[in-house]
Fold this sequence. Notes:
By secondary structure, the chain is an all-alpha fold. The protein has three helices and no strands. It has helices at residues 10-13, 16-42, 48-74.
Amino acid sequence: MGVHNNVHIPGESWPHFTWLAIEFFVVLAIAALSSRELTNIIAKDATPAMQNWYFFGIIAAMVLGWYMGIRHGILRKKVLETRY
């Protein structure tokens, strides 16, 4: 039996942007679920219009905190790279 050089390796053909889209929707889902619970705790006596501001403000803070703070500031450090 011979060796075939046309073996399919999924890691090399999978588009990179799909991982970013999956990450975005996971972060958005976690932020929405957390925001729903935090809004129920924080804004019990607020009007519905104010509760909407709290809800979307908490979502925005979590998404921006993930992408600007954690992902850009911490996860991109040279210390965490495994390339030598």
